[in-house]
């Protein structure tokens, strides 16, 4: 009887030991599983951190990098980005100017190179040139025909752009007999116009150059008269008719171009024979200097009418 009890006690002790052993192994496996999951999480976090660092470094070079999607999708998408605030000019090197001139800047400092391209340098230059070519200045030299040369006839016409570059400079063959060359003022001599261009050819060239453009000049109505051309009044800027300028320079009277040029630009012109290119450039320079106030005055006058 005692032997049976002792044998039962031994079996009970072994059973408890087996239960403890099984429980311990279960806990070890659970801990091992948690450890492996924790390790995977650390690896994933490390990978994300490395990706973020890679993006920042590449952005500082102004390069384009494949960026992980942040919306927990696990997928990747291609984003072309250029971070202006992190841009390193030295690292970007020769590509720096290309990025600045060809790409568009957004308020958050990030540029999407595909969707928001800036106009190229050549496109901006073309627009600037087109804007400048909206303005032309013209001046004509005339000779006298008819009785004692009292009537005017076109002998030379010059047109310049906003920068003073010559667009047209033509001597015109006379249609009538010249009775007064007015050389001391016009600078025209017989040989200048004997082999000049046909009047109608020059007239057509002038029409094409000034069509739809703001025409600057001094006493421009007289120049248009000898050319037998009409130009819309809203597109004319006449230094002889701009009232604030007339009041400033000649106390309200019509001032000469020589007087205005000296007063406004501090330059002396027409000291001898006149030159239509020089006079056209002077009129354009005067307009350029006064253009802001001139255009405001013009708009006010237009609104009143």
From TrEMBL:
One GO molecular-function entry: 3'-5' exonuclease activity
Keywords: Exonuclease, Hydrolase, Nuclease, Nucleus
One CC-aspect GO term: nucleus
UniProt-listed Pfam families: RNase_T
Region described as Disordered: spans on this chain: 19-53
Compositional bias of kind Basic and acidic residues: 26-37
Domain Exonuclease: 134-296
Origin: domain of life: Eukaryota
CDD domains (alphabetical): REX4_like
Any one Gene Ontology BP term: rRNA processing
Compartment(s): Nucleus
Listed InterPro entries: REX4_DEDDh_dom, REXO1/3/4-like, Ribonucl_H, RNaseH-like_sf, RNaseH_sf
Keyword DNA damage included in the entry's annotation: no
Family under the similarity heading: Belongs to the REXO4 family.
PANTHER family for this protein: RNA EXONUCLEASE 4 (PTHR12801:SF158), RNA EXONUCLEASE REXO1 / RECO3 FAMILY MEMBER-RELATED (PTHR12801)
Official protein name in the record: RNA exonuclease 4
Gene designation: LOC119637867
């Amino acid at each position: 009887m005692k032997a049976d009890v002792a044998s039962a006690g031994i079996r009970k002790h072994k059973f408890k030991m087996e239960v403890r052993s099984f429980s311990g192994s279960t806990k070890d496996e659970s801990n091992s599983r948690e450890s492996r999951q924790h390790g995977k999480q650390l690896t994933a976090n490390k990978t994300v951190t490395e990706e973020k660092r890679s993006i920042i470094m590449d952005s500082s070079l102004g390069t384009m990098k494949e960026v992980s999607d942040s919306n927990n999708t696990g997928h990747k998408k291609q984003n072309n980005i250029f971070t202006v605030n992190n841009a390193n000019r030295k690292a970007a090197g020769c590509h720096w100017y290309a990025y600045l001139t060809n790409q568009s800047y957004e308020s958050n400092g990030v540029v999407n190179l595909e969707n928001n391209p800036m106009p190229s340098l050549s496109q901006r230059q073309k627009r600037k040139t087109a804007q400048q070519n909206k303005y032309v200045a013209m001046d004509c030299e005339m000779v006298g025909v008819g009785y004692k040369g009292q009537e005017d006839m076109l002998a030379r016409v010059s047109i310049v752009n906003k920068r003073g570059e010559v667009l047209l400079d033509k001597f015109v063959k006379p249609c009538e007999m010249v009775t007064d060359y007015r050389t001391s003022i016009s600078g025209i001599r017989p040989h200048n116009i004997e082999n000049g261009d046909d009047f109608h050819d020059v007239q057509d060239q002038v029409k094409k150059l000034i069509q739809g453009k703001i025409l600057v000049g001094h006493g421009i109505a007289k120049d248009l008269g000898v050319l037998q051309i009409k130009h819309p009044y809203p597109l004319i800027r006449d230094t002889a008719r701009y009232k604030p300028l007339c009041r400033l320079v000649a106390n309200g009277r019509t001032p000469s171009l020589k007087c205005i040029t000296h007063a406004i630009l501090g330059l002396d012109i027409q000291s001898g024979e006149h030159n239509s290119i020089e006079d056209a450039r002077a009129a354009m320079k005067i307009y350029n200097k006064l253009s802001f106030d001139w255009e405001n005055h013009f708009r006010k006058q237009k609104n009143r009418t």
